[in-house]
Amino acid sequence: MRAAGEVKVRRVYDDPDPNDGTRVLVDRLWPRGLAKTRAHVDEWPKALTPSTELRRWYHGPDGEYDEFCRRYENELSEPAAAEALSRLRTLAAEGPVTLLTATKDPSRSHTSVLLRLLAH
Questions:
Q1: What pLDDT, on the 0 to 100 scale, is given for residue 71?
Q2: Cβ-contact 75, 82 below 8 angstroms
Q3: 107 Cβ contact list (under 8 Å, min separation 6)
Q4: Are the C-beta atoms of residues 25 and 43 closer than 8 Å to each other?
Q5: pLDDT in tens, 103-119
Q6: Within its chain, how far is the Cα of 113 from the centroid?
Q7: Number of C-beta neighbours around residue 8 at 10 A
Q8: 91-98-102 Cα angle (round to 5)
Q9: What is the DSSP string of the chain?
Q10: Which whole-number Å values give the CA distances from 11 to 26, 46, 53, in the listed order?
Q11: Does the pTM of the predicted model rise above 0.85?
């Protein structure tokens, strides 16, 4: 049995695991080619995801990871995002949570920021 408060990141394209707990999609766009029934997503809080403008900047020629993290944390202080982050903290306190993303390298994405914030 896993302890309450455990949060992990998995690619949304991976098959669900019985130990995933609450599965939360943390991408703004639905993953390409993935049927909603196959994804087994419990929650999809779009307010928690980086804005379209921030995503485009980060994946553009000027995007830099540390600055992306700073800007994303700033976005997370906005009321709707802060409320969604609070909800995620509540879920994590109740049991395991798996953050789902289509990102190929979650360690250099918004999911690493979320993991760090949820650890505090």
A1: 97
A2: no
A3: none
A4: yes
A5: 999 899 999 999 999 98
A6: 9
A7: 16
A8: 130
A9: -PPTT-EEEEETTSPP-TT--EEEE--SSPPTT--HHHHT-SB--GGGSPPHHHHHHHTSTT--HHHHHHHHHHHTTSHHHHHHHHHHHHHHHHS-EEEEE--S-GGGSHHHHHHHHHH-
A10: 11, 17, 23
A11: yes
Q: Round to whole Å and give the CA distance between 48 and 37.
A: 22
Q: CA nearest 44: which of 25, 20, 27? A: 25
Question: Contact, 24 vs 87, CB < 8 A?
Answer: no
The two tokens of residue 96 are 């395991």
Q: Position of tokens 């990141």?
A: 9
Which pairs count as long-range contacts for 25-28, CB under 8 Å and 24+ apart, including other chains?
A: 25/100, 25/101, 26/99, 26/100, 26/101, 26/110, 26/111, 26/114, 27/100, 27/101, 27/102, 27/103, 28/52, 28/55
Sign of CA dihedral 61, 65, 70, 74: positive
